[in-house]
Amino acid sequence: MRLRHRNGEWRHLEASSTDMLEHPVIAGIVVNARDVTERIEQDRRLRFQADLLAQINDTVVVLDAEYRVRYWNDGAVRLFGVNVDDALGRYLGEIYTYRILPPEDDATVTDAISSQGFWRGEAEITIADGRMIVGELSVRAMRDEEGIFSGYLGVIRDNTARRRAEDRLRLMEAVVVHATDAVVVTDAGQLDVPGPRICYVNAAFCRLTGYSADEIIGRSPRILQGADTSVEARATIRQALNEHQPVQVELVNYSREGRPYWIELSIAPVPDAQGAVCYFIAIERDISARKAAERLERDRSSILELISADRPLPRF
């Protein structure tokens, strides 16, 4: 029931009545009441907080001091595949186990929560059904109104997709860095003069061209072209870039010192998440030795033809 206090505030009372009409002295109804306003307000706050937590996409879990589940939001249901009724009261280890990822470990987590009341980091989480995810964890120590430790509030964000993407990027970077073919990445914004700008080159490119990364980044790959660079090959490349299509050609480029060399050049567009082409990646394979061998074979064939025809050999 609610009663209005003399100061104007409404107070919540919990009351019980006892029929004592037959009592020789009391002969009436005895009503016992206690003020439960604070408890009602606390329950309202908790329900409000629970409603808010239920709307959060991240997983929110509340544990008591013995690691039993006391709160389990919809995000936890989606992530772990365990509904609220089945989770409440269970020990956390029955639902999932975790391993703190380096450079931290269980000891540093315990120290952080003990000294600061809070810890954030990444953990590898193994769910009871065998699935494994990488989660970003935020753990906070909870205390009651008297300051006594009462449990943990944990928020888990599933970073599995991001972590796998980062691993793939690191793998691709390692492949590119250690590739024996030259790799060049240019932007796709400026195809007219002066041409697309170089954003990245690997070590093989620097060895092939004689340019350092600092010297070449920001400049156009056209700096590598020269007198013997095929006009037809350049036109083919330009058309493919304008149409955002992959292309492969063979052409002559020139090193920083002016040394000509043959390359097999493969260029592919790189789209962003919306499908718009933002970069081009080029793989350059040095085929100078093959071209020299082909030239020698042509010369040998020509000499054999002259000999068989009993014609004079050319002077070299």
Key descriptive features of the protein:
Beta-Lactamase, alpha+beta, about 35% strand, 9 helices, 3 domains, 6-stranded antiparallel beta sheet, about 325 residues
Q: Could you say which structural class the secondary elements and strand pairing correspond to?
A: alpha+beta
Radius of gyration: 37 Å
The outline comes out as: rod-shaped
How would a textbook summarize the main sheet?
6 strands, antiparallel
Beta-strand percentage?
Answer: 25-35%
Helical residue percent?
A: 25-40%
Main sheet strand line-up:
5-4-9-8-7-6
DSSP strand tally: 14
CATH architecture grouping of the largest domain: 2-Layer Sandwich
CATH topology name of the largest domain, in short, is Beta-Lactamase
Distance between the termini: 116 Å
Q: Any overview of this molecule?
A:
The protein is of the alpha+beta class. It has 3 domains: 2-35, no CATH class; 57-159, Beta-Lactamase (2-Layer Sandwich); 179-294, Beta-Lactamase (2-Layer Sandwich). It is 33% helix and 34% strand. It has a 6-stranded antiparallel beta sheet with strand order 5-4-9-8-7-6. It has a 5-stranded antiparallel beta sheet with strand order 11-10-14-13-12, sandwiched between helices. The longest helix has 21 residues, at 288-308. The model has no long low-confidence stretch (mean pLDDT 84).
Concise synopsis of the structure shown:
This protein is 33% helix and 34% strand. With 316 residues, it is α+β, with helices and mostly antiparallel strands. The protein folds into three domains: 2-35, no CATH class; 57-159, PAS domain (Beta-Lactamase), CATH 3.30.450.20; 179-294, Beta-Lactamase (2-Layer Sandwich).
